[in-house]
Amino acid sequence: MKRMIKTNETYCVDTEEQALDMIQEAKNAQVSGDYTLTKSGYVMKTKKSKGEIIAVAYVVSLEKTYYDSIWEE
After folding, report:
1. Can you give the pTM of this predicted structure?
2. Helix (H) or strand (E) holding 4
């Protein structure tokens, strides 16, 4: 039987505050979610037109690791 041990999730949000809140929520949910947040971060992405920034978005990455699932029978 194949079991998932690690997931990588990517989200796009509108503000840096939302990105930080999403990471903090994932950290807070580790105990009830039965995972460990092994990597997290965000990157600001911009869209330019004629050298001028016309849009900004933040891409949030979360890596969750599930340790005990590999040893269950």
Report:
1. 0.80
2. none
